[in-house]
Fold each of these.
Amino acid sequence: MRVSNFFLILLVNLGEICVAILNSGPSYRNGGDILPRFASQPNTFSAVIGDTIVLPCEVQNLGSFVIVWKRGITLLTAGQQKITADPRISLVGYNLEVRDIRYSDQGDYTCQIGDGSHGDLIHTVEILMPPSIQIFPNNGDVLTTRKGATVSFECRASGNPTPVVQWSKKEGLLPSGLQVQTGYLLSLTNVQREDAGAYQCTASNGIGQAVTGEIKLHVLFPPEITVAKSWVNSGEGLEARLDCVVQADPPGEVSWYQNSFPLQQTDRRIMSSKGKIYTLTIKNVQFSDFGNYSCTVHNSIGKDRKYIELTGKPGPARIISPAYSNPDYYDLRWVVQSVLPIIEVKILYRRINATTFYDHKGQWHDLVIKPEQKYDAKTSERLQSFRITNLVPDSLYECLILTKNQHGYSDVSDVHQWFSSDKGRPFVGSTGQIHCLGIAVMILLQIPNVLL
């Protein structure tokens, strides 16, 4: 039996500890080689900052050999002797324990038998880091741009594992129509005023809590005007209100015009605003107040103009009757906006010859009537009706309506068409849908001379 000589020499010089590990050669026992070998396997250990990890180093047939732990070229332990001054590092048997893990502890740790001629065991320590982000422009900043421009936001994330970065808009969808978009870069092209708002970048990797940053986008744009009613009906002695809804950033200056002439505020003509709604109120309307009005808005980027007509005449009739009738009569119903009573109604209707295409030369029937009316003061609408008789069954009809108050006739209504059902045969199915007559109709509307 031959046993190798192994010496551990500690040299103390000026307070420094130097370690020399000597191995005189291989070990032989009973005429054969019995070499030490590792029972542990190399592994990667993941830890969060503050954790404690134990790196295993189990060796079989160690004999008189010494276990050495190193990190890189730095010696940590030799045998049961701790070399490093780091109080967080200690031996548990031959296993290496590291407490209160720091980010700087990541890397390779080597368990070595003697001088390393019998191999070594390498463990890797990786530190799991919760995500952190850096946003450009800076987190919380407000980025100002103009309508139509292109802007880009960046969200650089770090952490281990690599975080997933997603963009979202705090209120609503992204301009692309997506709820979220993955990637560090968010680019917005042809920016519109609706794109203004807070954009959020969120990074997550399953370690700790996800982190979120925010950038606000401020979009400057020229004025955009909408009018709820481009036609306003009123009467002499009454009050009229004209509204323009204005969107503009920076805020614009609003001016009112009548027939292209600028208006000034008076006791009877009042200009006001509430939020984005700009109002021209005309009290005790006079005949000279009727005409075309416009509201104009301009700011440093551009301008816009919208028109509103103020008139005493009724609005066009809106026919609300169904598209079918009994075989020989039809109850025609319509609504017209007029603050003043309707004094006369003109109805024109005709039967369409639908046996061939383009054949629309049926005779117009011209009725002038004075039907009753039901007035709704909230909407200034008047409901009227009239029964048209002596219809031809199983036929297609069309009609037009004009209404008149003391200021004159309205514009002509839209063309309204209906079918008269065949005698003895229901025309409307159980679903309320109209059964087809089995004929194709193409209509070329000809306004009768009586309207001209």
Amino acid sequence: MFGIWIAVLLFFGTSPGEEVCYERVGCFTDGLPWTGTLSRQLAGLPWSPEEINTRFLLYTRHNPKAHQEISAVNHLTIQASHFGTDRITRINIPGWKTDGKWQQDMCNVLLKVEDVNCINLDWSNGSRQYIHAINNLRVVGAEVAYFIDVLVKKFEYSPSKVHLIGHSLGAHLAGEAGSRTPGLGRITGLDPAGPYFHNTPREVRLDPSDANFVDVIHTNAVRFLFELGAGTVNACGHLDFYPNGGKHMPGCEDLITPLFKFDLNAYKEEVSSFFECNHARSHHFYTESILNPDAFVAYPCRSYKSFNAGNCFRCPKEGCPTMGHFADRFHLKTMRPNRAYYFLNTGTFSPFARWRHKLSVKLDGNNVTQGSIFLRVGGTTGKTGEFEVASGTLNPGMTYTNLIDADINVGNITSIQFIWKEHSILRSQNKLGAEMVTDISGKYAYKSTFCSQNIMGPDIAQILKPC
């Protein structure tokens, strides 16, 4: 994959000014803005629809395992299928060089939760090489728009009921389809591709004008040549989400350590794995969000650094959106007086969802000591979790505060136990306790306070009561 992108930079395409026209999808030029800009000096003309052979593979609750191939060219195939005009339609659109696995996983999860028309788009003939894929996606986008137009004209189906979910180049492909479809309901961009799309005009890339609502998840939003990224650095939706800062995802290997192995073949594999991991996390996050309507709460903030410092923890009065499938529930989703960036943290491995708490402990005790303090909390969901609040020098009278991204959704906290562990292996007479614990948790910054007047030895639980 690394070698292919380098080849893209060395490839000389056709000279600007040429045009091709195809029945059903219209005409395409290789002039501005498609070619000749700083970001797209080498792009060219797309192939014919016949050569690309775009396929629409339908899954419903009537046929969740075996697809039905439907075609707008022969609309009777739609009529004879399990396509339901009373259902929402979600079309999963891959990028280049894909095996279709994430699309199948997406349909499987969607159909567990919703009675929808789930369509997996297959344009693999036209997307095997990146340089060809960036040209061909215009024809495929026109094919998707034509498919929706047939639904409207032959089946009186509203375009507002169509949701395009595109990964990588598929996100820009969805934008192309949306720009041709007035009233399209929604586009979700899953780490829209960066190379050949950074800082391009909105006609070329995904843009908020392409649908009634456009939400974007960035997981590898860095420039390819400078930080080895596959995603675009541009915000391109009504809501742009940046999990873990949006650049490199926890659990995806770094590229520096393998260099010291001096094994070129192994390093090529590491590079490929690095791109695929970071870039693919976007659709992993989205798929998981389908099953977790209250997970992936994201906070508006100026920067990821400021978010991690806790400066943006409380949601503003208008609330916070959730990243992923239920982003469209945010009531201000299309209001953008000033573009906001939405940040959140995730786990290293699946399940990725995390729930943020701000925990403060006012410490009581008989001596300053070295140790760690933990809170064991229970909440309205019936689940419990144990979180470390501080470690090192523990000074009675001090208040210790920590932001916790919990891997368990305990809900609003209803019970708290304080536990501390001493770092010394020698027995001591030190005792500590939590005089007051304050928790701010959840999307609505629910605040709860618990108190106690007891102090305990190490490893003994202190039970606090609401105060």
Amino acid sequence: MKFSWKICVSVLAFSLLIVGIGGYALLSALFQSSFQREVKSAADENRMLQYSFAAYWTTTVQDRSSGFPETDVRRAAQAMQEGMSGTELRFQLYNQEGRELYDSGAEEILRDSQREALFSAASGETGARMMVRTGEGFGLATVSTVLMEDGTLLYLETDRDVTALFADRESQYGIYRRWMAGLLLLQGLGCYLIAVWLLRPLGRLSRASRRIAGGNLEVRAKVETGDEIGQLAEDFNHMADNLEKQFKELEDAARRQEDFIGSFAHELKTPLTSMIGYADMLRTREMDEEERFTAANYIFREGKRLEALSFKLLDLMVIRHGVLQKRSVNARWLAEEIQGVLKPALEKAGIALQVLVEEKQILVEPDLMKTVLLNLMDNGRKAMEDGGRMYLLGRTEQQGFSFYVQDTGKGMPEEELSRITEAFYMVDKSRARRQGGAGLGLSICAEIVKKHGGDLSFQSIQGKGTLARVWLPS
């Protein structure tokens, strides 16, 4: 069942329950009020007849020496009936034993057992009444006692037809049910239209989710309201944004993995091909001493390059999964150590180095941080084949400490900057291989800085140089 139908059925069921119970309770209360008025009217009529009989007895029967013979009772009752000839009041008189003494023409609505129960309940000064069903109608019987002067007790019964009262109640119930059916029909139609209108955003949200499931990650739900459904649409769009971002990251990771495998295979294939070729020459050809030395030396150099490559890959894995042993060192001391290591190579390449680093205690793993700065500065040296200037700067900033390595070398295209920390990625592959590089240095640097909780970033302009920044948290 659709959600809109569920809403309609639920609202209709609730309305039917509440309005139905309330309506029937109201009609019942109105009926009870009308019935009580009928009961009061019947009691008033019975009481009036009771007083009237006493008055007619006084004026009709003069001789009381013989007690209250039944003929005198009938005579007084007859006189009272004649005096009420213009009314529709009917009554019956019974003696103390329950035998009928006079009947003014009232319709019998009580059985003998019911009458006896009423006479028993009306003993004394209290009256009694009973509601009875008469065929297809209803009647209200009221009994009161008339106490004569000698203590004789008479029972005065009056009957009142209340069939119309019950008929009105059934008619009101019927009208109410018809009105309820019509109103529920209109309410159901209105509720369905409102539910469809309110749930339109959910339909659009469902269609958007199916399109995303089909591969279109750029789809977004339209936010039209500020209610819970609008909030749901905003949350859905936020989820879609994160999903698209993560999907792109997975695509980038898959691409990097493919590039890594391809580059690694290439890095192995080139030296192995040469090594196999020279080894085959040594195995199958007669060579003089110099040729054998040249072939063996080439095999040795390429083997050492593969060994260095394997060590760098091992270092990369160790850094990624290892635990750093940090300690507090002076940033200027660290810079001076690096300056001492690189000074001969830089002077030989015709590169002037300037070091400006603040006196600041930083929490690092010293050997690994030296590796980072040495790699960055060595890359700068390789980019300045014709000499130039290099700067190593260090200062406190952004709740941490930053090292800057700047060179005046060849620089890099801006689109290459996002990939230079990928394993085996080289901007200028021929120059890198000529200088003994494998494309792993910056990958190792990035992992070391990441392990320190810092950030490694680059800025570069082709023909002017590159600026590398290492930010470390306090």
Amino acid sequence: MEQRKIGIIGLGVMGQNLALNIAEKGFGVTVFDPWEEARAAFGTSLKKEAEAELSSRIMVADSLDTFLSALPSPRVILLMVKAGEPVDELIGKLKSTLVSGDVVVDGGNSHYEDTIRRQEELQKMGALYIGLGVSGGYEGARHGPSMMAGGDPAAYALMKPVFESIAASYDGVPCCAHVGLGGAGHFVKMVHNGIEYAIMQIVAEAYMVMRDVYHLDTTWCSRVFADWNEGPFGSYLMEIASTVLSQPDDLNKSGSLVEAILDVAEQKGTGRWSVEAALKYGMPSTTISEAVFARTMASQKNQRVKASKILPGPDSKTAVVDSMSLKALRDAVFASVIVAYAQGFALIREATEQEEWGVRLSEVAKVWRSGCIVRSKLLDTIVTTFDAEPDLINLLLSDFFVGLLADYQEDWRKNARLCAEHAVATPVMSAALTYYDGYRTERSSANLLQGLRDCFGAHTYRRTDCDGIFHTEWK
């Protein structure tokens, strides 16, 4: 039987497209799915591939035993199944067949703590485990994703030729890397998704300001995003915002499709995981948390409709739209995006310090420059910043971003006032500005908080003028 370089279990859209991508780069691939219908559908689709050579590099196994027999030693098995119990169930079936040196790669959106547990379980058997964050959606999987691997460096070394060949590239450099030990790969991917939540919400809030404050139609909004995307902070999400807003409604043959989409946002959980991680590691990742809660608020459609008829708001007229007002909105958007990146990288830094994963933030930024959802021109500057200052505790403290936010903050605050006056909710842009001001506050209000805690609960406090822990009998 002909042996194949790599095996893939799971023939959903991502698994199929990664198989095609790997085969296109010249590697032999054996694929398997427990569902006969999935195997049959993929086999049929292979016959439609324009290049017969591509199909010849892919073998669809009809059983798990056949799949395993087709792989050379050490076997490399990429799992592309739903996160959670399906991964554990599949690993349970593989355990009796794995031998020392075999490599299992989880390419799904698994929780990093599950990845750490699975690594430890397989390590006892001598098998190696990689938690692989894959970003870019189904298009990225087919033509070049961004990939963040965590786990044993020896396992990554075996996979490196495949990963580097199928990954997106930026200036000729593959957008994949072994980002760190343990659960680092899936943790970095999780935070990527948290930043994605935040930036998507910022873009949506900018659209809402244009729609509800300036009363611009979707065509105008699309043009504004397209114009911003041509600037120094262009990004994939800015680009597709313009695309989505310009899409006509083919069903009703009139208007923009986005106007016909129900304003109820869904989520799969990685944003919530990022918030939980921020709480665990003690990091104020407020743009991510507010983005998650914004989706929760959006899901309460019936309550919002009822509240809109009961709760009063200000009487406000349409604001004047001109180049200066749109510039103010643009600056508020860009400043908020900078804060979202800063909070995400700060969360990764804190986690890797506590867990001793050895993640280098410049390496993460390099991997994100192409192929992933949060790719943007800004990441070039972030790479340069962390290369020059690898121990920088927060992006906001670098000279470049200090100067940039100084230039933006007047418009940032102007936009916040405008939104408040017009009762337009911008939770993430507001949270970003509040974080900026909170982070630059030398003396906060927490002294009163500690006094209150000591007053009702005897939780004690520390003083500014001497060392020690104190408690007062408050009167």
